[in-house]
Write a structure and sequence with these properties.
about 110 residues; about 70% helix; 3 strands; elongated; about 15% strand; 3-stranded antiparallel sheet; alpha+beta; single chain
């Protein structure tokens, strides 16, 4: 796994960050205030979580006056999807080999 994939996994490992990212995916661009109202944690905590998500490339921000609007970058999940596909192939091959072995043992 490369450093970028590690950063994505680390950033989404936290349930609050995951919830914030999901909120942005489902409901589109939102302000920090809106995200704070649904996150159940204080605004400074939401801001810290958003900074981690932004560093991982999962969210982007847009400044409008005094407010910052955040939106999800779902395409940033592509490296994780690639990794998942790779691991799926690995385990399918292993399970196929086990099935073949068990078939030979039964004969």
């Amino acid at each position: 796994m490369n450093a970028h994939q590690d950063a994505l996994f680390r950033s989404l490992a936290d349930p609050t960050r995951r919830a914030i990212f999901e909120q942005l995916c489902r409901h589109g661009e939102q302000t920090v205030g809106t995200l704070t109202s649904v996150a159940g944690v204080a605004q400074p905590t939401v801001s810290k979580h958003l900074a981690v998500l932004k560093q991982a490339g999962l969210v982007q921000d847009r400044h409008a006056g005094r407010q910052t609007h955040y939106s999800a970058r779902a395409q940033a999940l592509l490296p994780l999807m690639d990794w998942t596909r790779e691991m799926t192939g690995f385990w399918e091959a292993r399970l196929d080999a086990l099935e073949n072995l068990l078939t030979r043992i039964d004969q």
